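Proteins fold reproducibly. Take a tokenised chain:

. . .
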Amino acid sequence: MLDLSLFRYPRFVGVQLLAAAPAYAFVVLLILLPVRFVGIEGMSEIGAGRMMVALSAPLLVLPIAAGLLTRWFSPATICGTGLIISAAGLFWLSHLAAGSAPFVLIGPLLTIGVGISLPWGLMDGLAVSVVPKERAGMATGIFSTTRVAGEGVALAIVSAVLSALIQSKLGEHAAMAAQQLVTGNLAAAASNVPAIGHDALIQSYGDAFSTLLWLLTGITVLTAAVVFSFLGRSSASAVAEDAEQPGEEEDTMRASNA
């Protein structure tokens, strides 16, 4: 159903990585942070919602601004810079312990939201502009599949990694408690491991969450480098790639006929 030959285009590969980047640099936080704020730190639901506005609000404006910036900067520069900004926000957030004052968290949350908003506004256009026009429909299908599947896979993997990190802090016999902490059920976790104090559970969760954010920071920086490299190819190289592909397909057809 999917034309995998499109992955011969380096710029197309870069766009697929760009489609997956928001999944682990932004979307997973939409699930994990409210759980942390309400279930672990005891924040009210309204208070947690207000905190999430800092993360999401930039998406209302900056994608449009990213489109305007293409007049002066290449899409590769804008997208790569946005991911680096998002990685900086993740790294900043990783240094804030669980239970930090809400106003302290606004800075890193805004930074993550600002960073991810820049490539967000360009991804859809890039998905069809990096392949020949006659293959734009297939490119859109692959892009949408990568984007949606990436979010589900990223959430599953990140949740499993967070659970494993918490368990490594609590000990090998606290697997159930680790899973309950991931879902924000602090009371159930405390009843499962009564020997471990309430404060120790929160500390273990905070340390594991920080480690997870370090991992996400590294992945986001690596993605930014690859995206900048692949999407930053010169226009001349891009034209040459587009011209070579039909020739390769004709050679394949000739070989099949022979």
Residues 4-253 form a domain with the Growth Hormone; Chain: A; fold (CATH 1.20.1250.20). The two ends are 26 Å apart (CA to CA). The CA atoms of residues 60 and 117 lie 9 Å apart. Confidence is low (pLDDT under 50) at residues 234-258.
